[in-house]
Amino acid sequence: MLFNIQIIFIGVACIALLLLYLLRWRDYTLPQRRKCQQEALKEERPKISIIIPVSKEAALLEQNLPYFLEQQFPSFEVVVVNIASNAETSDVLKRLEAKYKNLRHTFVPKTSRYIDRQKLALTLGIRAAHSEWCVLTVPDCRPASNLWLATMTQNLKPITIGYGNYIDDGSNLARCAIYERLCAQLRVLRAGFQGKACGADGTNLIISKQLFLDNQGFAGSLELPFGSCALLVDQLATEENVCFVWDTKATMLQELPSTLILHNEKMYLAELRKHLSKNAYWWALREAFASWAFYIFLFTEAVYIASRIYESTTAEAYKLTHLFTDIPSLLLLMCWMITPIILFRQLTKQLELRKYGVLLHHYALLQPFRTFINKIRSLKHQEDFIRPIV
User: Which residues form the Glycosyltransferase 2-like domain (predicted)?
Assistant: First the structure.
């Protein structure tokens, strides 16, 4: 009787492991597969406008703007949209405009009300752009190379989504933040791979000006003071008008924020999911299923091992029939331990990130609890999700 129950547990563990691969681990191979499936490069490169909204961030502008302005690309401009001007920001812009002829700036009128100023800044920047193609990014970011723009525009589509992540300072905070952000972008990549992207990282996005204006830009998401790019892509993306660029030369690097800001960003993300489409909800549910598979696998293996320990203390000798369950159980544990580490290591090599090893299992173990905590925090801070009137 106990032997039959053990066989059932091994079967359940096998199914759970297969679900883990299908729902989570195989996503680690997507960037390499997408790279292999890229279309032939286009010879003609259109003019590009890089839109950067800023708010009293003079130091970041002086540090990061040269990385954008010194791109090896035939024709592009950088448009800085000043949300909250001060003398220091104006001085930096004037100094850089004197040095770089492809830099110009505009501003958000102080009288603007009833609209989130970040969305208004992006809208004004896109309208002021001299080109059809607009890159949306933020001032605390910088391209990983001077070929960033050339690589991002190799296969332009109305929505072109690039990879971006935090700068790794070697800390455990950076390691965890980079992992979580990478996994979130992998889910968007998988969604786009199977039909419709359900969001985007807000630091490395190209959008067609015509597409933006024809669909009234952020008109469908004015009630939220965050998640601009994710909501925009979720609204406008189709199977035909989106492409992804995952290349180290096209990576966008962002300054690692404080622990408090990272926690707030996770809280905003938990709230943002409520405002995305049903397609995005399905992909969030898919990730929940992967976590369930993870825990079901651990539970069934733990119960099997406990039953075998109990049997070994009561049986006089080892029964050869147990080889039919002991060997599969051991093989399943080895696959569970090794497979994600190997697949994720291939991904981190491609993106030039450090190794994660068994930390993957640690993060997966804690993920449902972190998700639950973020949802609770979002419920306690509902007033922060109301668009301010300025």
Answer: 49-152
